[in-house]
Amino acid sequence: MTSFDFAVLLLRVSLGLTMAAHGYHKVFLGGRLAGNAIWFEGLGMRPGFFHVRVAAGTEIVAGIALAAGLFTSVAAAAFVALMLVAAWTVHRTKGFYVMTSGWEYTFVIAITAVCVAMLGAGRISIDQVLFGGNPADGWAGLVVAAGVGILAGACQLLLFYRPSRIVTAA
After folding, report:
1. Whole-number Å distance between alpha carbons of 81 and 110
2. Which stretches of 79-157 are assigned E, i.e. beta strand?
3. How far is it, in rounded angstroms, from Cα 37 to Cα 51?
4. CB 40 within 8 Å of CB 50
5. Whole-number Å distance between alpha carbons of 17 and 21
6. Phi, psi at residue 87, to the nearest 5°?
């Protein structure tokens, strides 16, 4: 094992398990699915119960896939889509910095996932065992992770994002 392979493994596992933990939290902790569905509705992602299930499921599956190095670029695309939707619906009006609930964290997660897709899963991965390497790394990994991820997130927002319009009397 090279230091590169170990570094990519460490990055994949830490990033992937962090994302999977976010999905687990939505399902089993805090407000659970019901409470998070209400929150999603309030954010404008309607129907909330559908979207919390899709988000939690995607976080868990994509997180485990990235950690394992399975279809790495596709898993990274899911990260990008998730973080784009989160940045737009939750964080965009709060500035950049995470201290004010800004979009800094979502940006770093998405960019890191794209970098993993470009670097490839490394030798210690399921991609290596099944395919002899990452089927789409380098520039192809960039296109899959960033391109597909941005397209998927944008489509989800266009199809389902319906924020409430609060009308105030003048």
Report:
1. 8
2. none
3. 7
4. no
5. 6
6. -60, -40
Is the omega angle on the peptide bond into residue 47 within 30 degrees of 0, that is, cis?
A: yes
User: Quick one: pLDDT band at residue 134, thresholds 50, 70, 90?
Assistant: confident
CA end-to-end span of the chain = 67
pTM of this prediction?
Answer: 0.92
Question: Both tokens of residue 60?
Answer: 């868990």
- Give dist(CA 56, CA 64) in Å, integer: 12
Q: Which residue has the tokens 């939750």?
A: 90
Of 7, 3, 9, 129, nearest to 66 by C-alpha is: 9
Quickly count: other Cβ atoms within 10 Å of residue 10's Cβ.
12
Tens-digit pLDDT profile for residues 109-120:
999 999 999 999
* pLDDT-derived band at 169, boundaries 50, 70, 90: low
**Residue 110 identity:** A
* Cα–Cα distance, 161 to 88 (Å, whole number): 10
Structural tokens at position 160: 């389902």
